[in-house]
Each structure stands twice: as structure tokens, then as C-alpha cells.
Amino acid sequence: DQQVKQNSPSLSVQEGRISILNCDYTNSMFDYFLWYKKYPAEGPTFLISISSIKDKNEDGRFTVFLNKSAKHLSLHIVPSQPGDSAVYFCAASVVPGYALNFGKGTSLLVTP
Amino acid sequence: GAGVSQSPSNKVTEKGKDVELRCDPISGHTALYWYRQSLGQGLEFLIYFQGNSAPDKSGLPSDRFSAERTGGSVSTLTIQRTQQEDSAVYLCASSSLRVGDYEQYFGPGTRLTVT
Description:
The structure holds 2 protein chains of 2 kinds.
Chain A: E1 4-5, E2 10-14, E3 19-25, E4 32-38, E5 45-51, E6 56-59, E7 62-67, E8 72-77, E9 86-93, E10 101-102, E11 106-111
Parallel strand pairs in A: 2-11
Antiparallel strand pairs in A: 1-3, 3-8, 4-5, 4-9, 6-7, 7-8, 9-10, 9-11
Chain B: E1 5-7, E2 10-13, E3 19-24, E4 31-37, E5 43-50, E6 53-56, E7 65-69, E8 75-79, E9 88-95, E10 105-106, E11 110-114
Parallel strand pairs in B: 2-11
Antiparallel strand pairs in B: 1-3, 3-8, 4-5, 4-9, 5-6, 7-8, 9-10, 9-11
């Protein structure tokens, strides 16, 4: 069963605008959430994380929001750049450092 | 410093053969993880090592799959009697597990094709 869901397989955004990638989860025991970015033929690269005690974490152009009551998190990228075009995976674990449960990914295309 | 490396980068094997996939984690990283990504799917957890022991091997899909880690460093994932459904990209990750640094750093993966 898929405990982490990314319901949008793809997203297209114009350069300079905001990209919003969404993720839902079903396991209320998840306590640590991460976003990874993946280019073709490469391994995923860590982007940003958030623990359940926070509802927002920012790192430069990337912000992750967590709504525990809705079991929902989102990644905002602003402003979006063509180099951001990649597949973005949402992941969650019960304890930091334990096995990650991944969504199926959202392919982001940022057009000039 | 050097990242996680995996070998081989590609492996084509015939159904029924055994394969070994290797992972060299980042030096000093305590934890090592194996995942796989089948076509159109997310990453699926296989096994987690802390040091040389595997406290969580719940993701191994069958007893044809096994993994070991020696010297707290290199790990080998072995698939016996490969089947076509084993075709996937096998990804290894490592983590220091230091407070505030729980991220898993991934290698480039081994693409396994079973014909």
C-alpha cells in the first residue's frame, strides 16, 4: 500500500513563477519528511526536510509546509528556474534515519 | 568528499542467474540503505544497515534477495535466480545519523535488466 502519495505526475510552470508540489500521506506515525530532486540517470539529491514539530522550513528558494492534521505537505519553489526541471520525490519516515517511504514523484518542467 | 558509489552502473543478466550489486557509502556513515525503483514507480525500501547489522530488512521482496555489509562500510546486495520482475534501478544511500544530519545521500544506482 502506498503510504505517501503524489497525485500530480507532472507540472509545468513558467520561469520566475512559483512551483507548488503536493504530497499526502496516510501513516499518522510519520514524523520526518523530506523532498528529493532527481535528474535522469542520477540518484536522488536531498533538497529540504521538516520534522513534525514544525509547520514550515525554508532554505533559499525552497520552502516546505507541513499540515499534520490534513496529513499533507507541499514544496514551494520561488522563483522557479529552468534548472529546477527534474522529478521531485516526497518521502517520510517514522523516525529520522529510518527507512524512507517515497511517493511516485512529480515531474516538474520549468519553461523559459 | 567522495559521494556514494555503486557498481556496476548497468547489469544485464539472464533469468535464473545470480547477481551481486555493490555499494560504497560515504566514509564514516553509520547507516546504509538499499532501495529500488521499478519503471513508473517511486523508490521502494529494501533493507537498512546500522554498522554491520540489519535492524530492518522488511522490504526484501523474497528470500532470493539478501544483503550484507562488512567492516561498517561496503555493502553487497545479492539476488539469486533472478526473475524479470527484478528489473529495476537499485539505489544505495548512506547517512551519518548525526543529530541534525539525518538525510540519506544516494548513489547513482545500478540499472538491472533481467532478460
